[in-house]
Design a protein that fits this description.
The structure is a homodimer. In chain A, helix 4 crosses helix 6 (about 65-80). Helix content of chain A is about 60%, strand content about 0%. The relative contact order of chain A is 0.18. Chain A has about 170 residues and is mainly alpha-helical. The longest helix of chain A is centred in the last third of the chain and has 23 residues, at about 125-150. The first copy, chain A, is globular, with a radius of gyration of 18 Å. Chain A has a single domain, classed as Orthogonal Bundle (Globin-like). Chains A and B meet through helix 1, helix 2, helix 7, helix 8 and helix 10 of A and helix 1, helix 2, helix 7, helix 8 and helix 10 of B. Chains A, B: It holds the Pfam family Bac_globin. Chains A, B: Keywords: Heme, Iron, Metal-binding, Oxygen transport, Transport. Chains A, B: InterPro entries: GlbO/GLB3-like, Globin-like_sf, Globin/Proto, Hemoglobin_trunc.
Chain lengths: ~170, ~170
């Protein structure tokens, strides 16, 4: 069985080593808080105005301002800045928190399309940082598609055989 | 409706501000890699030998050596060290990755009991770091109990009304 990160790499075309190259430099120190706020504002302005109603509707129950803050606080925390997200909302728990939403391959691609455009609209982000961030976003989007599939998986009874993966109920 | 972190704070008795006080100092720099390896080794040695069969059986399909590595790599990454966990396994995704396991209040308390004993068996961890780490562990354990409850929640159809929280199917 493929792991979450193996599926993410296979589907996104971005290996974990490239996705987590964001950790090689401190992008928060390089770019600063305002750049992250601008990026998330550009991103969600596109999303909430998306002509694709099926995608826009995924966000219909969330306020735009909150969506922006949740996103930039997570990015800041994950890319070398202060842990703004966890101090306000606890662990990122990316799969758990995306559980209410239909994170399909199609939705991942639409999210990435808007993020690519949002990066283009944020001139304070240099080309190298853009590449690193897009690799992180692409891998993460498909990590969440892989996580979304867990919702449809039935819970298996815990098994005490030595083979693992056994589907019979434990005695 | 209470959020995940509100439930975690209420059930654990540890507010997010105290749980994430681990970020005020760099515990990895203070303690070093070997101390984290020792802590997780002490912890899982207790867990895999637990006289409480119901708790021990939760880990029956995982190898002890892998459980140790997964845990100390996550702790190292979360407490100021290099991102060992993500480079090997991707995002921590704490709720998603705990999905196969029954994370009940009782299981959280048993986990915390073993971790408290493991901390006591690791003399290289000073008293102040121990308090910070136990607060983080206690809050996180109940964050995962809150996350576990999501498994039993039915997916609600997405709703396009302006009120939010509406349970009727979208037109």
């Amino acid at each position: 069985m493929q792991s979450l990160q193996e599926k993410a790499a296979a589907w996104s075309g971005v290996e974990a080593a490239d996705a987590f190259a964001i950790d090689e430099t401190n992008l928060f120190q390089k770019l600063g808080l305002q750049t992250f706020i601008n990026l998330s504002t550009h991103f969600y302005t596109r999303v909430y105005d998306d002509e694709e109603e099926w995608f826009r509707s995924i966000f219909a129950n969330s306020k735009k301002e909150e969506a922006i803050q949740n996103q930039y606080e997570f990015f800041v925390q994950r890319m070398g800045g202060p842990p703004l997200y966890s101090q306000r909302r606890g662990h990122p728990a990316l799969i758990g928190r995306h559980r209410p939403f239909p994170v399909t391959h199609q939705a991942a691609e639409r999210w990435l399309h808007h993020m690519e455009k949002a990066l283009e609209s944020t001139p304070d982000i240099d080309a190298d940082s853009k590449v690193k961030m897009m690799n992180f976003f692409r891998h993460t989007a498909y990590f969440l598609v892989a996580g979304d599939e867990l919702k449809n998986k039935k819970q298996e009874p815990s098994c005490k055989c030595k083979h693992g993966g056994c589907k019979s109920a434990a005695p």
